[in-house]
Structures are given as C-alpha cells and as structure tokens.
Amino acid sequence: MRTLAKTQAGAPYLDRYAAARAQLETTAAPWLAGWRRAGAEAFRTAGFPTLKSEAWRYTPLHALIEGDFSVDAPAAPFDKARLSGVVFGREAANRFVFVNGRLRADLSALEKLSPGIELLSFAEALAKRPELVEPLLGKAPGLAGHPFAALNAAFAADGYVLHMAPGITAETPIEILWLGSGAEKPPVYHPRNLIVLEKGAHATVIEHHVGLCIGAYFSESVSEISLGEGAGLRHCKVQDESREAFHVALTGVGIAEGASYDSFVFSVGGRLARNEIHVALDGKRAHCRLNGAYLGRGEQVIDHTTVIDHLMPETSSKELYKGVLDGRARGVFQGKITVRPNAQKTDGQQMNRALLLSDKAEIASKPELEISADDVKCSHGATAGELDDAALFYLRSRGIPEDEARRLLVEAFLNEVIDAIALAGMRLTLEHNVSRWMSGPS
Amino acid sequence: MLEIKNLHATVDGKEILRGLSLSIKAGEVHAIMGPNGSGKSTLSYVLAGREGYEVTEGEVLYKGKNLLAMEPEVRAAEGVFLAFQYPVEIPGVANTTFLRHALNAIRKHRGETELDAMQFLKLMRETMKKLGMSDEMLKRAVNVGFSGGEKKRNEILQMAVLKPAFAVLDETDSGLDIDALKVVSDGVNSLRGPDRAMLVITHYQRLLDYIVPDRVHVLAKGRIVRSGDKSLALDLEKTGYAEFAKEAAAPTP
Hints:
The structure holds 2 protein chains of 2 kinds. Chain A is α/β, with parallel strands linked by helices. Chain A has a domain at 2-283. Chain A has 9 helices and 20 strands. Chain A has helices at 2-26, 30-46, 62-66, 122-128, 130-133, 147-155, 389-396, 402-418, 424-438, and strands spanning 94-99, 102-103, 117-121, 160-164, 174-180, 188-189, 192-197, 202-211, 218-227, 232-240, 246-255, 260-267, 272-281, 287-296, 301-310, 316-325, 330-339, 347-356, 362-371, 377-385. The longest helix of chain A is centred in the N-terminal third of the chain and has 25 residues, at 2-26. By secondary structure, chain B is α/β, with parallel strands linked by helices. The model of chain B has no long low-confidence stretch (mean pLDDT 90). Classes of the chains: A alpha/beta, B alpha/beta. The A-B interface holds A 388-391, 393-402, 404-405, 408-409, 411-413, 415-416 and B 48-51, 71-73, 75-77, 81-82, 84, 87-93, 97-99, 101-103, 105-106, 109, 141-142, 158, 162.
C-alpha cells in the first residue's frame, strides 16, 4: 500500500518523464541518457519523502506534491531594464541570469572572466565539456539515494557549470541570478549546477533567487561542488522567492585537503523552502563554515538541513544559523555532524538560534552528533526565545517607538551572523533586507 | 511639573504603593529615601510605564497631562527620563546607534528636524567631553561588558543627550566609588535648571552630599511618611529607617 501511495504521489512527474523519454534519452549521449533514466527509476522507487522519513519529519510536502506544475511552461518574459533592480554586483560583475531555470544569455554578462575560469550553462557544458561533467555528475556527497537528487537527474535541463583551473583566483564575485515567475500553469524547473575548483583555486559565488511576481512555481535544484587541495570557495545564497513558491535546493560539497568551503544562506522567501547542504571533509585540515539567517512569517515553512561528515584528521566545521519567525511560520533546523574513526583532532561546532515573534510561530531544531573518534572537540546547541522584554522597555523608555525598538532588537539578533559575512556589499544588502522585512506585515 | 495623587500600584497582585502622594515643581530636586522593599523602584517603573506594574488607584499628572495614559516612548518624548538602577544590556546594538535612534525619535515627536550622523557625532563628542567620558563607550554594545560604574555613567550620558524635563534617578549611586559618584553627580547637577525637575531615589544619604535636594521624603511601605528639607536626610542617617517603618505600619486614620 505504502509503495503504491508513494508512486502515486510522484506519478505526474513519472508520466511526464515517460512522455518526454524519447526526446530526453535519444538526443543525449548514452551515458547521459542512462543517468537520466536511472534518476527517473530511483524516483519511481523512492517517491516523494513523507513525514515518516527521518530527514523530512518536520517538513510537510503535501502542498508541493499536490501542486500541478508544468515542466514546459512558456518562458516568462523579462525586460532587461528591470535587471538593475535585482542584481547584486555592479555592472562589471560576471553574471548568469536564469529565468524559470533557463539561461538567458541576453541578460547575462561574462566579459570579465579571466583565463582559467570557465562559466558555462549546464546544457552547453554537456555539449562542449562532457569529459568534465560526466565523471562528476551525481557523485557529490549526499546525493546518492536522495529522492530530490533523483528527480533532478531525470529532468535537469539547465543550470551552470563553473570550472577554475589550478591556482586561479577570481577577482570579482561570480553572480548567478535566478528569477522565478509564476504563470497560468505554475512552472517547475530542475537546475543542475556544478562547481569545480581545482587545486589552489579561489572564488566567490553569489546566488540570488528572486521571485519576480506573485504566483506559484517550483524550483528544484541540485548543486555539486568539488574543491581540490587548498582551494577556497565562498558561497553566498539569498533566497527571496515569491511567497507562493516552492524552493528545494540540495547542495553536495566534497572538500579535499586544506580546502575550505564558506557558505552563507539567507532565506526569506517561499511558501516552502528547504535548503539542504551535505559536506564531506575528505582531506586533512579541510574546513567548512555553514552559516545562515532566515526570516519567516505567515504560513511559511523554512527548512535548513545540513549534514557534515568529518572523514579525515584535523578537519573542522563551524555552523551558526539564526532565524526570526513571526505569524504562524515554522522553522526547521536539522544539523548532523558525523566524525569517522579516522578523523582525530576534529573540531565541530554547531548552533541554531531562533527568535519567535509570535506564539504561533515555531521552530523544530534537531542537532545530531555521531562521533566515532576519541580525540575530538564537538559542540552543538539550539535555543529558541522571544524578544527580551527588559531590552524592549529600555529602548522605549528612551523614546524609541515600539516597532522601531523591535526592529533594532531583531537586527541586533541577526547581526552576529550577518556581520561574519566577508563581503561588505552582501552585509549591506542583507541588513537592508532585514529592515525591509521588519517593516512588512506579520 | 509632577503631581502624584494617592497612587496605589500592584506587582504580581501584591500591593506595593499604597496611597503615595507627591508634588514636584519645576526647578526643584526632590529626594526619596527609604528602606529596601518600601516601593522606591516600583515608583520609578510606574512613572516610566513598565509593563507588569499595575496602577489600581490614584493619578499622576505631568505638566497637567495624565502621565499614566501614555506609552513609555511617549513619556520619554514628552520629557520624562528614568535612570535605571540596573541598566539593561543589549547585545548587538551599538551605544551610538541606540542614542541616535532615541534622540531622533524624541526630536521627531517635538517637531524638530532629525540629526544626521555628522551632527549627532558632534553633539556626542561635546557631551562626552563635558562629562569626562571616553568616545570608546559609544562604539560598544549598549551596556554589554560595562562595569557597574560605566553603566551608571551611560545613564547620565543618555540623560545629558536627551535633556529631559523631568528625570527620575533610581539608586544611581549604588555600586559607585567616590570618583564615579562625583562624575555622575556633576552630570546631574549640570542639568539642574529652572525648567527641569528631578526625583532622586536613594537608600543612602551619601549621594545627597553631591546632589543637594530641595525636599527630602521618606518612603515606607508604599507611602510617604515624612517630608522635610535636606536636614531630614542627615537625621535619617543617624536614626535609620526603623522608626518610619513603624509609622507606616500603623493603620491609616
């Protein structure tokens, strides 16, 4: 019975796959066709996760599953003039712009790319650089057996591929702008992204998801990141989808010896947003920092799930997520840290703090440590609290109106994590986002 | 300036103020002395408008207006200031941000133009210099990691910047050494003027050597049981509060 229910839940996707099969499989190279078919098969077996699966206990997907999304919705129109209102970087930035998951070359700008840096669309990379893509595709940590990774494999049509040759440093951030737009029939898109930094390469990638208008759509992305020895990636993501949108993003990161991955995720949009990051610290002294801030209100469900696997000695991970929840919003934080027997001298720290502005808002925090080495330093913690009444009164007693006092305290709460972002421009953008959010309806 | 009539107030259902009356004219400094638990801090919180302090009877008129009907921020904007006995720590909010928001909120309420960052900084520098405080205090988060003396000085700094018409100083002397006491008192004295009034709440006479009051009141069990000039404070220092506690315990005629 259960298997049947699962299959039914994913049925529209499988029907769609069957319909498109001829095109998806025959126009592709045999390895790619096989990969897609395997994805579709795996999704047929797994189906969408339910609240019964441990990794999805707090995140109800029924609205997403019941959603009638269209994979081949006509591309939404977008006028280039609007771009200046949503881009992060200055004119000079290297930028890819996607509208509903499809690259829009006319909106993108790649003139400033230095030699040794390749930025291609996924579709283009499949055609031009199969030798780069094939050995990596689907191999990132956390993807095996993941139902959304399988679904993505079946349908992935576009996305971006960033490759940096050994020792190359990108001077300016690479910006990926994802514009989402609802339509008569809500679109679904499955971006597949690949970042490969060879030995000693360094880059900053900023991903910005923006909802262009009110309306539902479903962005289901998978990003695979491979960091070679001593490489360093700063990865900053701002998720500001439309309030009716569904956003499920799965990122798998493999980190070699001495390399570091510095991630910041800011989540404010979406009706349902799941941001899931799997990191394998797979070389001595590999390091990751996973930070994030989230703001939820109304009926929003905002889920951050991270899995950090310490495989080698002297690896370190630092994690701090801070969230503010109002209305009836639900925040979910699941953080798993595994320390393998070999990973002596591991340092792992994890913390999730939530501020609840209404008594209907809720946070589910699930920290999980699995330690199989004896010489390690690991800590985790979770807190949930309300605004400090004493502080609020103190501010008001000095003449600051209540709403302004609340805003100051919320900003102060988030400052700890926003101030830790290395990019000054990003800090400013986010501070602005926070104060805009605070002046919105609850 | 301030007229308190037959004020009764409860905290968690327990009556703390039991018929307190007091009248303070512009230009005057009054001191309230009393033992622990007599209701000194309750009076200060009631005047500032803190939640949880419920007025069950009586009224407070400030410049002829019903003070108790105003929100805390409106009281502040109208010129009421409480120097807290225990100033609150606010991690993540810089002292200068806090003060600029406060000053501009009050200026806005008064129909004055808000100060920009440069104008504000200039004002702060001048005020800090006058009070003998270092700029470094401005950059730190509000009261976070401040010593007891620094917290009290920070209260006086806020008072000097916001220039209230009526200030309540709640045990501002507690935990201060003589040097800090002098800085704080100088700050308070520099704000004395014909348009201002102050209510100094203290447990000890010591502070009143530095801030010389026009009137002294003794508070016991939620009522004022004795009023006099500054010599009353000196008498109290000799006799202690025990006698007044007895008076207060006697049934009201």
